[in-house]
Amino acid sequence: MMATRTPLSPQALALSATLTGHTGAVWCVAWSPEGGLLASAGADASVRLWAPPPGVLDGGHRLADGGIDRDKGRRDGLDVEAAAEADGAEEAAAGWTCLFTVGSDVFPRTVRSVAWNPDGHSLAAACFDATVTILELLPGPPPSLVVAAVLEGHESEVKSVAWSSGGALLATASRDKSVWIWEVGGTSPDDVECVAVLTAHTADVKALAWHPAAELLASASYDDTVRVWAEDEDDWYATGVLSAHTSTVWGVAWERAGAARRLVTVSDDQTVVVYRRVPPLVAGGEDRWVVMWRLGAENPPRDGGDPVGVHRRPIYAVDWGRGGWIATACGDDCVRVFGPPRGTRPPPAVADEWASNSEADAPPPLPPGADAGAIPISSDAPPSKGQSAPPAGSAPPSVDTDDAPAADDGSAFVLVGVAAPAHAGDVNSVAWHPVDERVLASAGDDGAVRVWRLPCGG
Hints:
globular
């Protein structure tokens, strides 16, 4: 029997803190793996490291006292109390502390993206000078970030960096249309070697996201597509080319819960698209990527028709949190949170052959020269730019946007939370806290980093 849905009224996100210090647009925010630190990167050619006060991020979870271990007085390996008292530490709003800043002495131009290694001991920073810098975290006190390695090879601005779930691989993306994959040694962050250069995109590569359990990489591009990459005996190939958008794809994120078979993308075309991977029917066959859900002006969220749920400008970033919520950062100055309607069940946590850190556990290779196609939203939908229409008589998609909200599998989403406005200008980045599933950070053109909480009931 199908569950009864109760539309959720979107709630206002509760502002916990506004962190100031950047002197230009803030392009990216990233939580440390245990959630005790927040890194931000901006147009002022700097990376800042922030720490919350005790008790701010518990949210009823195991992250007691904001990530502080009372016995050791340490958060993510740092002596936070001593660090806050050290010379140079800056007090931010609501008790947050700027622990350290890496500035123009290291970065000559804008820092566009930052990402933490899953071990929490280093982070990578993408710079517009065409380099990637790996910064090593030293516990102090006071804590500090030091340059461990500078990666060169891209021919133009580096737009995105992302670590694989095991931390052995670092992916970098650039305006030069390429994605580089680097192997990082297990003994030190300066032991780095480029193992692949992927050049299938035909325009800037804007964003990267690794699968949360497998060595599977998604890249989003100015060429209106997302490519999903996998490795087969040291060769990387595109196991999927997703073409549901009609303009630049700015952001991409994997589902973190269950089998993590779903992928969300956001675009300059003001839409959000959720894809689901359909494994091949036979070994060695092609993967299919089915559009499960699409949000845009022509099909607003089924939450009672609240117009705030529709993005009115390009969507620049997206993140899919461990609580199952999708957050978007939009050029209309808003942050929106979408979740399954009340009364629906999340997708079952079935085993996925990709959900493993084992090198041997990879998707089957495609035939030479073949790409796995993304099934369009409906058989009547016009093809995306640069993509031909499906052949006559081809099978309709497994799920389209007309049928998805009626499915009882968590494939549909409604607006559950919003900050309108969240910033005094474009919102460039959103990041869910890795432990406290209702905490969200955002960054904007106004030079601010903000920390939000989704109220209970969302």
